[in-house]
Amino acid sequence: MSTQAREILEKYWDKEIPIDPIKLANALGAEVKADPDLATSGEFNCTNDGPLIQYNNTESKVRQRFTIAHELGHFVLGHGGAYRDNPEEFSLANHDPLEIAANRFAAELLMPEAVINLLIFKKGIKDIAKLSSMLQVSQIAMQFRLKNLGLIS
Ligand SMILES: [Zn+2]
């Protein structure tokens, strides 16, 4: 399991849920810009002014949050260069190792294992719809995360 997301959360997360990926990106020195005219879901670029994450704010809130976390992954994981991400890049069917790594980072950032465990085992919340709404992620993303953590089959 990658530790970058956990380290970032330990350093910069204000312990509020849902976790705000924009705050974390800003804390890490990346600028985050909403652009309703963006032709993609999200993009990451290393510009002369520094790292820049752009996201399409006409998409659903949970998609926007995942997009920002995914683009932040490209930055934090040192993928360099420029990324143009569309729903295919977020899909589980994507086999590009860099996209898989960015998706994993995003999942770990928005759905930390410790938070999931707290919600499920301490607060007794077992409903996927409720868990995903508390963490503001899609139900599919939550389902996949719970599977990865071995909590559902
Ligand atoms: Zn990507």
Automatic annotation (TrEMBL):
Protein's UniProt name: IrrE N-terminal-like domain-containing protein
One matching Pfam family: Peptidase_M78
InterPro entries for the chain: IrrE_HExxH, Rad_response_metalloprotease
Domain IrrE N-terminal-like: 28-147
